[in-house]
Amino acid sequence: QVQLVESGGGLVQPGGSLRLSCAASGSIFSINAMGWYRQAPGKERELVADITRGGSTNYADAVKGRFTISRDNAKNTVYLQMNSLKPEDTAVYYCHAYIKYAGYVYTYQEFWGQGTLVTVSS
Length: 122
Known about the structure:
Blueprint: E1 2-7, E2 10-12, E3 18-26, E4 28-39, E5 46-51, E6 57-59, E7 67-72, E8 77-82, E9 91-101, E10 104-112, E11 116-120
């Protein structure tokens, strides 16, 4: 099977920085797009940023210029560097990926991580 495991969340003061990581493991054949979503209390889950296998990126307007998504294809890992954090960035951040794996090598299947909490507060 395949798992996405996130790390790097925590408590940070406004204006601070955090770096999230998400590693995919298992019998992976290929990974297409990877990304980060977030869900704040009482709100729907929303896209933060995503990145294609080739490195093309897409960002939500709310994080443009502050967050940077990147990936290491050799390590099946995606990162989210978050700078100039604001209280409104407080949310559970979820890793997302489209993966082909053993038993499902013809179509990409959608996977989610378990989520990591980011709290921005003084």
